[in-house]
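Known limitations

Files may contain more than one protein. Parsers should not assume a single record per file. Below, a two-record file is shown to illustrate correct handling: read the sequence, read the token line, then continue until end of file.
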Amino acid sequence: MTKLLLILGLLVGIFLPGESLAQENKSNFVHVSLVDRMQQDSKTECISDSVLSFGGGDIIQGEDGRYHLFVSGWVADSARQDKLMPDSMIYQAISEKPQGPYKMLRSIGAGCHPEVFKLADNSYMISVQGGYYSAKSLEGLWTFHTFGFDSRNRPAVKTTSHWSLARRKDNSFLMVSQEGGVWVSQSGVSTYNGVTDEGVFPLVATDYDDWVVWRDNVQYHLLLGNHENSQCYYMRSLDGLHWVIESKLDYSQVMKMGADSLGLEKVVYGCPSVLQNEEGKAIQLNLEVTQVRKDGKMHSRNVSFSLEPDLDVRLINKKPITDAVQKLEILVKGNDRFNPLTDLDLPTLRAGSPLEVNRGGGGIVVESKPQGKDLLLTFYADFYDFPHGEFAVKLAGKKQDGTKVAGYMRLPQLKDNPLMSVRKPIFANFLNKKRIKMTVENLGDVSSRRMNIYLKYKENGKYKVLFKDKLPPLRPFEVYNFTVDVKWVLNDRCRYEFVVVVDDKDYESEYHFVK
């Protein structure tokens, strides 16, 4: 019996590389965050001036291949620099390289926190605090406009401060405004529709006042920072509404010199913006770097850092990733600048949920197979722990030269879902019944399926169904209006809590109101 157990133990050790192998490889683990992927030796001062300070800026590549920087600027060396920000100007500068240096071209107009986009009609937009500028070309005449906002009966989320925009896959736009309110617009300049009942920023980040949002081919990303202490939260989302906090970052970690070595009171970093490649992956991070002197005066510069792009990775597993899954198969794609067959340091790679990978857990490489210029990797773990709300697999590690790399993949069990959003129902008396007018909108970037809709009210602590119906499929931004007559069982002199639920087996949204 002892020999049999010994043989079984040896077989398990050979064929199931579990805890012992994980422990052996533990020392090779490296934590990889966005700040870790900032290439310190690529730091470049994008634009400088002896009279002006430059703050946040955004970069876009023009039709001629040159890069255009739109950046806020104001009179330098002010002891009350923050009070001058509403009076700052937007300047346009140009460079042959994305990291600069940039040559001043012209001023556009008043504004700060610029973000520039090419729209579906081939015109251009510069979003700024308070509105946006539009032009038919980057070199054209820019005209100022204000955005339209429709809260859609949601609690008022402030839009008086700045905001950040991300292009969705259907060329519609998602906006994150002050306090984390989320809005969507069909064109980027058409009305922004409120879709959240409360802000998406974490409660622990109430003092954080800088943010930027962007989307790649896997997920949305958000950096939420505090320019006073150079720290920020890095958050991710599948749909732009439900966010997970992956890590807390400190921009100053990548700087070689602190305030003391420069004879300053402090150096702070903020107003982030990202430059993306064709897949939407961030390849450059720009920051406002402010030097605060002992006398309280300040001078700001816009500085760029190249980013090691996210790896182009594909999860081969087709079945849902559950606690019973022990192997992940991941294809790492090669390109002209990256050869996964020779560039990756395989013992450092980990794969699993971002939470466990960031803590040194997840699967380790047990097999690698070349697939042309790509590399198929098999990762093993006793089990994979994906917490509630997590939607992505993370692969992280190093290249042979020590460069830190990471990549994300969507869990295979997740579908593309619409964004079904309900306006507050309108109640009217009709004979001895109540006639209820309902408006449902698909504010997502994919068409909806046929779904259920319920109107429920709370009585004695429990929700009861007032009516149930079926919704037809709706295209993105399609509106569906209908009325329903119900037998009224409630007391009109009392206030009730209601909820409208739209769902199917893969999706659910709720809208709460009181009447």
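...continuing to the second record:
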Amino acid sequence: MPDIHRQSSWDTNSPSAPESVHGPGPEYGTGQAGAPESEREMLVSGADAEAGMQDTAPPPAGEVTPAESAPAPWGSILTDPKPQALSEIGLLGGGTPEYWMSGIPGNVNVRDLSIPGTHQSASYRGTNYFDRVRCQSQNLRWQLENGVRYMDIRLRQFGGSRGYFDVYHRYWLEQRFGNVLQICRTFLNSHRSEAILMRVSGDGSWSDDYFSTFRHYLDTYWGSYGMRDDFYISSSFPTLGQARGKIVLMSGWPYLGYGLPFSNESYFDIQDNDESTPVFKRQQINGQLVRARGNWPPKSKMYVNHTSAWSLTKTPWSFASEMNPYTLDRLNDLYTPGTGVGVVAMDWINRPSGNSNTVNDVLPKAIIRYNPITSATTGPRVLTLNGPANAPASGDVYSGHAGQSFTLVPAGIGSNLRIYYRIVNPYNGLALSMGADSVVNAQPVNPWNDQYFYRVLRTQDEEYTIKYYSLEGVYNGLALTMSNTGVVTGTRYNNYQSQNFLLPTQGDGSTGIRSKNYWVGADSSREASNAVATQETQGIPDNAPLQD
């Protein structure tokens, strides 16, 4: 992920402005991954503090307070190099791997997509013979935020016909299937332009209880609620429009009897020789890439290419350290717009160079760029401040454009001891301005009251309210408001969903200001499912759920 913003003289209308500056960042609503609710931040006014909202004047533990002399984003500092412009990496529309499906038309069949995947996706933790079973170093959330859309999940069933699944790779990987599903649900609820293809298979032997337990997960796992609505279940490949916001179920060994039959050669062309030599494995990887690329869309089946292997003398990482650089070279050498390579499922997908210290998204991007990405067709509405001065703020679909990056710069402390901030676009240097006349626009930085804002935590959820703050302590009751059509104004605070925002730390280190409720071109009805279950608290006969 890229480093933090510095003030820049870039004009977003000039040719030198980057088409996109965002890479993957922490999940919505958290300034820092895993932060407790008391440390999640929001923007609020004094009147609301009396209504139960809490101010968060000091930054949460682990965050960095920006110095006024060198403004930096409010949030975790990220240290990887800044990504290339989208035109240079072949990504348009969604802007980053986190939203790469947002720029693909909904009528494209998922069978024709080029999809980054991971082999043994959950095998990033576990203790027994770990060097022999570990195939990833980054957790499922990192994988999803960095473009992985194919997951390989192996299960063992326990507890009778309405039991539960543990996730295995020969040994227990210290999490349960419900944990995996909750991570996917959380991601999809905040990334409704995306879809996840999940291959589910058994690890070891299975009985009838395996099948009945899976039905239990679908229909009754969380009390009276199951996970069926989170899945796309059909024996036909869906279009992306049908699959958005869903987990596309694929099963094999055993086939569950519904969903896509992963073990059926009429549906899938799979290269998965995992007991091999480096020379032979390279030949297999290249051969499958060439076959998939040569079968132009619409493809007759889905191609799946596993780059993973092991032997008695080589661990999965030993193979990956050789196969990943080779695969990246072949993906680049074979690239032709309009072709496709299908699913490429990799071990250690964050390490393209074979260096054990690497953590980046180069391999997913090399696969994603094969897709017919055109422009952002779906995604969250986000505050956009492109300039020039006096240009109105808007709520455009997220595209990773520089106008969607903000730095919250502490500007002073009010009489009530709250910190107030300027909200500045670090690329064009313009500040968010909200006047008493409800007009919200871009203005040069100035000491006027209409550029002062402050934030507070709403403990009941992860939504943020951005409210106008008067330096003199006079509150006019205005709050930043974004309609479902993207119109941005200042209106009286009423806690409507149009005033609820998420403030994620984006991949370039900036802060995004994104509507929690309004999306473009994606089903927003899934929002209600958030309240169904946020923890895996039922259906497990022993200890509390493990978290990713």
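Parsers that stop after the first record will miss the second one. For reference, the second record is described as follows. Residues 1-21, 23-95, 468-475, 524-548 have pLDDT under 50 and may be disordered.
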